[in-house]
């Protein structure tokens, strides 16, 4: 995977999903999440997994049940992202051989998620925790813990989040909203990747 950026395609439909994903991948965003509250999300995940599973990590977001984890695995998904840190969901994700990125906010949630087997942590909503909050939590996290900032992190503040120790980002509406064309998403993805690359420490 080229960059630690996860595209969150909330509201995407199976009809458009392949063309939109193609633009993301061409731009260099090779982790793609279809939230489960999108129309026919499993169908979109299955289409993406079949088309791009060898060059991109395809998965589901807003996963809150063990049953959904199993459904995503059957559809070919390899990534489970949740808004919360449910130990049962994390354990089921790892048992199915998928990557687990649960949503956390407090140190207790962070450590509970890691002890359950999470591959990384999704700070959500990142805007609520803020730069200083992430710095404070990072001081006690195990070395090497992957932390993704989601919700309030985008091309306008990548540098600040990276300085606060964020390893990666989940990007939603700044990349895709229902109604955006594949061309618009591709253009936004290219700009997002450029901003991310420019934000890297010199």
From TrEMBL:
The keyword Acetylation does not apply. Coiled coil: none annotated. Keywords: Carbohydrate metabolism, Lyase. The keyword Metal-binding does not apply. It comes from the Bacteria. It is an enzyme of class 4 (lyase). Pathway: Carbohydrate acid metabolism. Belongs to the KHG/KDPG aldolase family. NCBIfam families: PRK09140.1. This is 2-dehydro-3-deoxy-6-phosphogalactonate aldolase.
């Amino acid at each position: 995977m080229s960059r630690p950026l996860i595209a969150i395609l909330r509201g995407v439909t199976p009809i458009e999903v392949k063309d939109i994903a193609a633009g993301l991948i061409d731009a260099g965003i090779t982790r793609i999440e279809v939230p489960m509250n999108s129309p026919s999300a499993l169908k979109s995940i299955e289409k993406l997994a079949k088309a791009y599973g060898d060059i991109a990590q395809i998965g589901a977001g807003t996963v809150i049940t063990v049953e959904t984890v199993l459904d995503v695995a059957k559809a070919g998904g390899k990534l489970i992202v949740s808004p919360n840190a449910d130990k049962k969901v994390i354990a089921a994700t790892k048992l199915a051989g998928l990557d687990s990125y649960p949503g956390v906010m407090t140190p207790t949630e962070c450590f509970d998620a890691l002890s359950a087997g999470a591959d990384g942590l999704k700070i959500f909503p990142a805007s609520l925790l803020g730069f200083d909050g992430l710095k404070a939590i990072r001081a006690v996290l195990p070395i090497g813990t992957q932390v993704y900032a989601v919700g309030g992190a985008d091309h306008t503040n990548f540098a600040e989040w990276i300085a606060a120790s964020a390893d990666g980002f989940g990007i939603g509406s700044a990349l895709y909203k229902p109604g955006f064309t594949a061309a618009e998403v591709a253009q936004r993805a290219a700009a997002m990747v450029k901003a991310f690359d420019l934000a890297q420490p010199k």
